Amino acid sequence: MAKFSNSNNSLYLNVYIDQGSQDISANSSTVNWRLTVSRTGGYYTFNKQGDSSLSLNLDGRNVHSSSPSWETSGEEYTLARGSSSISHNSDGSKSFPFSCTFNPNNGIHGTITVSSTFTLSPIARSSWVNDNALSGDRRLGSLHTLTIDRKSSSFTHQVWYRVFGSDWIDLGKNHTTSVSLYPALTLHDTTPKPVQGQWIFVYGPIMEILKLEMIFTRMDGIWQYLTA
Length: 228
Known about the structure:
Layout: E1 2-8, E2 11-23, E3 28-39, E4 45-47, E5 53-58, E6 61-66, E7 70-72, E8 77-87, E9 95-103, E10 112-119, E11 134-135, E12 144-147, E13 156-163, E14 169-170, E15 178-181, E16 199-203, E17 207-214, E18 216-219, E19 222-225
Parallel strand pairs: 13-17
Antiparallel strand pairs: 1-2, 2-3, 3-8, 4-7, 5-6, 5-9, 9-10, 11-12, 12-15, 13-14, 16-17, 18-19
């Protein structure tokens, strides 16, 4: 756990934070935290009346408030601990501010605040298809293999394609890193002219849908794929 501390009159408030599990479909991470007090020197200090105050804010949201009893003569004393869910940005990144405030309320030590920023590991949000992802001879009726740059081992994909404005052809779900396709010879009859195509990426929870619009043209009697 990362440790952040501040003090007042030799009493330290310590905030420990680390990243727990990630939920890819929810685009969020679990953050584990622990709040302690400790002191330098050898004398005993305490408040056992339960009228101290403690609060923790993560990413602008209060996740803990209490009035703990505590004591320390140098050792760390745990005031509170817990876990909280933090949502990531739409691109999967996340750094969030936090602030913890403790009022010992024992007439010896003043209010202590610890504030900083914590950065979470990013969550992969999108698989992708590179320009050279489609292998094959680019001829209708022959085998082609599409390679998917999968950003997380938990991602599966549904892949569709169409040629010349045809209906979308569904290659099925649960593809991981590649899928094979055989564009039918009859697809050249769909429209008299090739149209500009592109990869269309749509993200859904866990399932990613990759749509490919292929460009073919007649070349010496053969309908052939043209790379853009």
